[in-house]
Write a structure and sequence with these properties.
The complex is a heterooctamer, with two copies of chain A (379 residues), two copies of chain B (99 residues), two copies of chain C (276 residues) and two copies of chain D (179 residues). With 379 residues, chain A is α/β, with parallel strands linked by helices. In chain A, 38% of the residues lie in helices and 22% in strands. In chain A, helix 6 links the parallel strand 7 and strand 8. In chain A, helix 11 crosses helix 12. Chain C is of the alpha/beta class. Chain C has a single domain, classed as 3-Layer(aba) Sandwich (Rossmann fold), CATH 3.40.50. In chain C, helix 4 packs across helix 5. By secondary structure, chain D is an alpha/beta fold. Chain D has one domain: Pyruvate-ferredoxin oxidoreductase, PFOR, domain III (Pyruvate-ferredoxin Oxidoreductase, domain 3, 3-Layer(aba) Sandwich). Helices cover 40% and strands 21% of the residues of chain D. Chain D has a six-stranded mixed beta sheet with strand order 2-3-1-4-5-6, with helices on both faces. The chains are: A alpha/beta (379), B alpha+beta (99), C alpha/beta (276), D alpha/beta (179). Chains in contact: A-C, A-D, A-E, A-F, A-H, B-C, C-D, C-E, C-F, D-F, E-F, E-G, E-H, F-H. At the A-F interface, helix 4, strand 6, helix 5, helix 8 and helix 12 of A face helix 4, strand 6, helix 5, helix 8 and helix 12 of F. Bound molecules: thiamine diphosphate (TPP) (2 copies), iron/sulfur cluster (6 copies) and magnesium ion (2 copies).
């Protein structure tokens, strides 16, 4: 087998990435600008023996992929803002029951119905905080169709490794843009499978974890597992009035992500070696930012780009350290300041600058360049 | 006022007429999207596609004959047109433009 | 000679500055809206007290074209929004205008519960067998074997018979027409508007762009011709017997017209009692 | 160098496909970098359509077309909407039967693409005629590349027709060039 | 003499360490679970392949007591969760066990859609006329005039006839029993378990704590006596005629038992075709 | 009329507050620990001529109160975490369409079903970020039944004044605790009504705002208003492809809250005059914190309490200024660090300390006191 | 093994018997919550409330007579008990404890 | 001074009401500060029940009972569960028919509240008998206050019965005090 070169949109690339990662169940509900993912899965899944189902809404879609995951399949859904809002309760159930699954959110401009066909990046905070209670997820953000492919595979791998819903935070621009995508030979692609119990059913403790992540027995494997969204002990049984059980459980659920931030960190640094000002960006905005950095470098500005591929968990430590070296940070995002808050938390408000867009269009490299100049020259 | 007149007329059409009435066909050409509904389903075959293009690039309907007495003013075209591009005035009523 | 006109007598019911509407050539939605406005003309509803609520979809855009208080809500939530509107202001006549997907996929639960409670509202559903707005995906009314963008191998899901679901849930008025039955549809809309309680009118309508062209009816006209050949009027039959199949007859007519106390009456009755 | 191309027309003319084919030809068969972005209205209903292609030897960061080097239009509406953003020295390509030029333009290449397509028996291949013309005129993409990209985009039974349409357009393009 | 025992033959079907269960004295839920386990005993289902899915509610706790793979999901979402489970692993026998509120208030949409699609699963609904778990609020099956914590003046909402809704949505097996009809219920559960497609069993059961004591049946025993006097078995009738009213007869029996292709079969058929 | 003294739980007090504020429509769906609010409204609303309806779920409840608000009624719903998650999409619609309404979230311990009958405070971030896209809401947090009454009235007033959904972030402990509640005479209670258009219908621009907040015409008032969750212009009409319209709209929606932060600020300072260490807390946690401050003061520690009654918008400026005076901040909350992130953003990570609880129980004053000692003594 | 026997028996009960059989009643006293279902609905009136309290404070059922031949082993009590507190063994079968 | 009181028993005995009445009496009629918190299990199903009251002249910050000064129990289960957290010099009040003391306790006051209630003809007023006893024994709350609070909590037709129950309990409490 050798590599193939395709001309895919980000949406198609993500769907193909899912198939390569082993996704064999997709439940979804159409919504612009994500629908091509569902449509492509409807076409392709049966060809590889997988099941596609269009559910009655996004609540059902999310619940169905959790069910399918417990049925033993790698499963996924795809949506956009309004649907993502509807999925929040069951994303919480996924986090609580530690169910591997992937949710793609192709972001459009909100709030509410907003601009259905146009770009936004304002669901960043929602991806982390949208469900009630304390929990953690992982969120990745691709900036090209190639990365839609790559990061969707990675999303499945992380979902299995950490037993957590992984969100792929795409945006309309990246989703609808067509570009070359290189599909590596199969044996060059790393695929992670979930850890299975190695002990017999009598000895199995479904929610006992040595190293944060417990082993997972699915339906029909003979382990008679009980799975609940209530606070549960290591056996999986409800203990909904014992604060100690709650403490142990919730800390573990959060810490398995928080304490692995460094492993999960995925940042592209561009022209950062001698940078005095750093642009912080992600997704489609990072493409404009890169162009702006090129422009600025040509004109002698010592500017670099920090592109976040892993958005959650946020690389606090990374930024905290950088704060000593970099004078100013300019956050470029298509929202009214979300990642900006995270950067600010780490490097201080006086060093943090925001170039927002409310959605419906992406930054022009020029605008960013002007902001760089302004910030660089200190006003 | 004009509109109210029109409303009265509508009510009137619904009643069964004894002798065949006549209708006057009004067309807002630039609204037409050329779906052909009015042409196909006019019970009298009064309408046909015109050759002319409207601003949107469609062919709005026109009368088959310059003599428009064939139209019985049944109002079907006016009810089915998805674009509010065609409406009818009964001939018996005194001629009055609706706009 | 035909006379060239600049405006239409129904323009005063429309937000005329927003016409032309966004719907495709040959789409059935314009016709349905047209019939509705004619129906309004012919009833005595005070437009000041009329409110139209839509969800999201091509049909959902109706709310944006009628020149009355109109609410374009979230996908699937037109009915509960309308419930609040009506209960807070009992003098309103509330009409929900939306698509098969909006009302019966994501919004199915609200539909059956509003029908159950017999909330006083009229629900008009344009059933074009698919999700037009998002580009032609499978919907809960897509006939078996039809092709859609998410059923590329042909649909394997049994569709709902909307009138049957409405009747089983408790609707007091249930009728179905196609967008070709303009006169009967208009009359049915008038009946529904005048009915106290939860009334439901389903309109089978062409969506050439998203559905027709994948199912051998690339224009609205062809679909209308199909309706002409295949519609069978059967007033008063058990809606259970009015299933819709690809290539089969479409049974239309008024299926249910019964009396039942409405939630609105009951709640205001209760208030009277409680205030004593 | 970065080249920006915009295709415009109305729904049903296959404008989106033109952009897709062009960019794919450049990217896959000519080995350049290319990005194609369709243009979405509030909803994908009839009306105006456009698509955008950026081609470059280098990495393409910003993927949208803001000031096209080449504008290919197949409707009056598209012409009027997009002509103002065409680069000052940009090239305008039109279907001469469908677009009436308004004021003195710069470089213009004209072809009666729709008429040619009708002569070939299928009005819907007008976009392919136009693509051939565009290829011949601009030489941005090799004929071989565009041909491959066209043929893999159409159902087998329409291959021949499309090849003919493409070639017809291409030849006129070469002629235009030579003039 | 009665013999004192320490364990029960059905204990092996139970997560015995979790018994006694949380249900109140006189609650019907234990009886229903008991019948279900007896039904399991008497069918040939391989327990390894049985999965039980519940939503939230007193009934929803069932999943936590049966010693098989069991999933206690979110309120209302048992059915879509079960849909994913079943479609991902076709060898599973999937049973959804939940309450009237869970399945028909918040979960109503999933119910009608799963029935429509004819997903191969058995849905067992314990209808205790109210939300037991949260303390006795109004539910979609609360009879007219009954008192609940959120209907202190008496209920004014027409209740669902669950069997009618199930039938109208497309269920292939529909039956209703009370928790007094233990033998017939057990047999019905067996039939439902053996049925291919979407099967539905409704069980009317006492909730003395939250419902009964506000409605003149303060103990489960009194409610069971009411069932004894007022139950009428009518197999095969149109479920439309089996409405439930306060103080009226409760019509029970098997109402629907038909054959229809299931979604599961169709989807695996489709896969076979697509892979060729 | 004179004041009355009642013995109410927080839940009942909130319901009574709503009635006093003029609430005449309640749509809800039962959920522990908020159900008493619905139950009390079911009993009381009819007595004052209002409508109570129990909807089929929380999605419907939220949509119904938006509808009722446009029908001219002051409207409210009450829920807890799982239901709050389900309301997010329509809270977004409320923000986008600027619909006054009040949502009470009586927080329990999450994530997912968690501990239904026990306390949590982990929906703080969700209240702000739970719906997709950029928007802002107001959130208030009472710490006693008395404040449940007072702040619910305030919530209605702010909802009307700012035309925004206002969240009352209660917690199970405050909701279920009974205490004395003083009901002031009617004429002593400030009630705000929504601004109505003063121009005739032809001249009315439903989404044009002089001072951030447009005037509101309800159904049946003759203004033929069109209301949409799509991006809309000042006339209220969809303009879903114009980024400029989006920019103007979303900035206004956010800025009407952000730029009024100072007016919305509501903080109780306790023993802060000479404090070197400040506890930051809210809701039930602030009660334990207050006890701890008393304890610590008795033993000579210069400790004070900053109790947040308005949680959103967060008082950035207030904390930024305080950072110069106060050496250390200890955030006491029943979650794994949410308000802590906000404090950190303003005063710096090195000055911010967290005493979290995962839920199911509240802090004992003792624990807080020990933390104070530890932080005070600098380790 | 034992359980399987028990399963066979269950199947057996379902069949109609020719001569009245007898049953042996097993009670797990501490599981009983005193609902009274078994007592009320036993077709033979075999059971009654005992005076004794169990650990939970309820009165579990006991046989009316020390002679338990009245029980026909119909299994109704066993099926209806919400607490899995009562079960039956048919007398004809060889006596075998189920636990 | 802060006084913590815990009431315990099982569902159906009216334990929650006891806490509510006590705290309300203190707060509304005796003008003190008082907080009442019911204790919730995972679900409100039968089983054990308890409620908590804190009374103080000062502001009450922390509202829960952690180490009761007074423990009133009406079931063996509640006794066994809560006796360990009773303050060392705390007062234990029990229904003597329902609770068997295990090991040497400190201060204990006993009353056959349920039996007295049965004698009054209504077993369910045992909690009111007990409340009266509690009032007499502890003198924490004025008799007047508790009486008002009881009477406003019960339906009109049961007022007399409840008053009698309260008084019976109260008198025994006074007697106990005097002993
Ligand atoms: C929560 C949510 N999910 C999905 C969508 C995307 N969406 C918009 S309209 C629509 C379906 C419309 O179908 P229908 O109601 O049948 O209307 P039609 O366009 O066919 O008239 C969908 C899925 C949305 N807007 N919101
Ligand atoms: C999203 C959400 N809303 C509300 C609740 C609260 N809740 C738990 S169970 C229940 C109702 C249960 O009623 P039913 O399904 O009839 O079960 P029962 O307790 O009567 O057996 C409710 C409303 C919840 N857990 N989640
Ligand atoms: S009114 Fe009737 S007859 Fe006249 S043109 Fe229209 S459809 Fe034909
Ligand atoms: S029905 Fe209307 S839109 Fe269609 S062709 Fe006739 S005039 Fe034109
Ligand atoms: S997509 Fe279909 S429903 Fe929508 S406007 Fe076009 S034809 Fe009508
Ligand atoms: S509350 Fe009702 S349904 Fe729940 S356990 Fe008690 S009796 Fe059963
Ligand atoms: S088996 Fe039948 S006869 Fe024997 S005790 Fe039980 S119910 Fe009575
Ligand atoms: S049925 Fe069971 S719980 Fe009820 S009284 Fe009999 S043994 Fe006890
Ligand atoms: Mg549709
Ligand atoms: Mg129930």
């Amino acid at each position: 087998m050798k590599k193939q070169i395709k001309f895919y949109s980000g949406n198609i690339a993500a769907a193909e990435g899912a198939l390569v990662a082993g996704c064999r169940f997709f439940a979804g509900y159409p919504i612009t600008p994500s629908s091509e993912i569902a449509e492509h899965m409807a076409l392709r899944l049966p060809q590889v023996g997988g099941v596609f189902i269009q559910m009655e809404d996004e609540l059902a879609s999310m619940a169905a992929i959790l069910g399918a995951s417990w049925g033993g399949a790698k499963s996924m859904t795809a949506t956009s803002g309004p649907g993502f809002s509807l999925m929040q309760e069951n994303i919480g159930l996924g986090a609580m029951t530690e169910t591997p699954c992937v949710v793609i959110n192709v972001q459009r401009a909100g709030p509410s119905t907003g601009m259905p066909t146009l770009v936004g990046q304002a669901d960043i905070m929602q991806a982390r905080w949208g469900s009630h209670g304390d929990y953690e997820i992982i969120a990745l953000s691709p900036f090209s169709p190639q990365e839609c492919f790559d990061l969707t595979i990675k999303a499945f791998n992380l979902a299995e490794e950490y037993r957590v819903p992984v969100i792929v935070l795409m945006d309309e621009s990246v989703g609808h843009m067509f570009e070359k995508v290189v599909i590596p030979p199969k044996d060059k692609i790393k695929i992670v499978e979930r850890k299975k119990p190695t002990v017999p059913p009598e000895k199995y403790m479904p929610y006992k974890a040595e190293d944060f992540v417990p082993e997972m027995a699915c339906a029909g494997e003979g382990y008679n597992v009980h799975v609940t969204g209530l606070t549960h002990d290591e056996k999986g049984y409800p203990q909904a009035t014992d604060p100690e059980v709650q403490d142990r459980l919730v800390r573990r659920l959060c810490d398995k992500i928080r304490k692995n931030e460094k492993k999960l960190r995925d940042i592209e640094e561009y022209e950062m070696d001698d940078a005095e000002v750093a642009i912080v960006s992600f997704g489609i905005s990072a493409r404009s930012s890169k162009a702006a950095v090129r422009l600025a470098r040509q004109r002698g500005y010592k500017v670099g780009l920090i592109r976040l591929k892993t958005i959650w968990p946020f690389p606090d430590e990374y930024f905290e350290k950088l704060a000593d070296e970099i004078k100013k940070f300019v956050v470029v995002e298509i929202n009214y300041g979300q990642i900006k808050l995270e950067v600010e938390r780490n490097v201080g408000r006086d060093k943090t600058f925001l170039l927002p867009k409310m959605g419906g269009e992406i930054h022009k490299p020029d605008e960013i360049y002007r902001k760089i100049k302004e910030v660089y020259n200190g006003n | 006022m004009k509109n109210n007149n029109w409303k009265d007329k509508m009510k009137y059409w619904v009643k069964k007429e004894l002798k065949p009435p006549h209708g006057k066909v009004y067309i807002i050409k630039d609204r037409c999207k050329g779906c052909g509904f009015c042409i196909e389903f006019c019970p009298q075959g009064v309408l046909q596609e015109s050759e002319e293009f409207n601003a949107k690039g469609y062919h709005p309907p026109k009368l088959v004959e310059t003599d428009d007495k064939k139209c019985i003013g049944c109002g079907f075209c006016s009810l089915i047109c998805p674009e509010f591009a065609i409406h009818i005035e009964k001939e018996e009523e005194k001629d009055e433009k609706t706009d | 000679m035909e006379i060239e006109a600049k405006s239409h007598p129904l323009d005063r019911y429309l937000r005329a500055e927003r016409i032309p509407h966004i719907w495709c050539p040959g789409c059935g939605l314009g016709t349905v809206l047209n019939c509705f406005l004619h129906a309004l003309e012919e009833t005595n509803i005070n437009l000041k007290n009329l409110a139209v609520v839509s969800g999201i979809g091509c049909t959902g855009r109706v709310a944006g074209y009628i020149n009355v208080d109109s609410y374009h809500t979230t996908h699937g939530r037109a009915i509960p929004f309308a419930t609040g509107l009506k209960l807070a202001n009992p003098k309103l006549k509330v009409v929900v205008f939306s698509g098969d997907g909006d009302l019966f996929a994501i919004g199915g639960n609200h539909f059956i519960h509003a029908a159950r409670r017999n909330i006083d509202m009229t629900v008009i559903c344009v059933n074009n067998y698919n999700y037009g707005m998002t580009g032609g995906q499978l919907g809960p009314t897509t006939p078996l074997e039809a092709r859609t963008t998410t059923a590329p191998y042909g649909n394997i899901e049994h569709p709902f018979n909307l009138c049957h679901v409405a009747a089983a849930s408790g609707a007091v008025y249930v009728a179905r027409w196609t967008s070709l039955h303009v006169r009967r549809l208009k009359e049915s809309m008038k009946e529904a508007l005048n009915k106290k309680g939860f009334s439901f009118v389903e309109i089978i309508a062409p969506c050439p762009t998203a559905f027709g062209r994948r199912n051998k009816e690339p224009t609205g006209l062809e679909t209308l011709k199909y309706y002409k050949e295949h519609s069978v009027i059967k007033h008063g039959i058990d809606p259970a017997e009015a299933d819709i199949e690809m290539g089969g007859d479409i049974i239309v007519g008024k299926f249910v017209d019964i009396e039942k106390p409405t939630f609105d009456e009951a709640v205001h009755e209760l208030i009277k009692k409680a205030r004593k | 160098m970065r080249i920006e191309i915009k295709f415009g027309g109305f729904g049903g003319q296959g404008i989106i496909l033109m952009g897709n084919i062009t960019a794919r030809a450049a990217a896959i068969y000519d080995g350049k970098n290319a990005v194609f972005t369709p243009s979405y209205g509030p909803e994908a209903r009839g009306g105006a359509a456009s698509s955008n292609v950026v081609i470059s030897e280098e990495e393409i960061d910003y993927p949208y077309v803001t000031n096209p080097d080449i504008l290919v239009v197949m409707s009056q509406g598209a012409y009027e909407k997009f002509a103002p953003i065409l680069k000052d020295d940009g090239l305008l390509i039109i279907d001469e039967d469908l677009v009436k030029l308004k004021n003195g333009e710069g470089k213009v290449a004209k072809i009666p693409a729709t008429r040619i397509a009708e002569e070939l028996g299928k009005r819907i291949v007008a976009n392919i005629v136009m693509l051939g013309f565009f290829t011949g005129v601009t030489k941005l993409i090799s004929y071989d590349a565009i041909k491959k990209a066209v043929l893999e985009s159409v159902p087998a039974r329409f291959r021949e027709l499309n090849e003919e349409a493409l070639e017809k357009g291409y030849r006129q393009g070469i002629e235009w060039q030579e003039e």
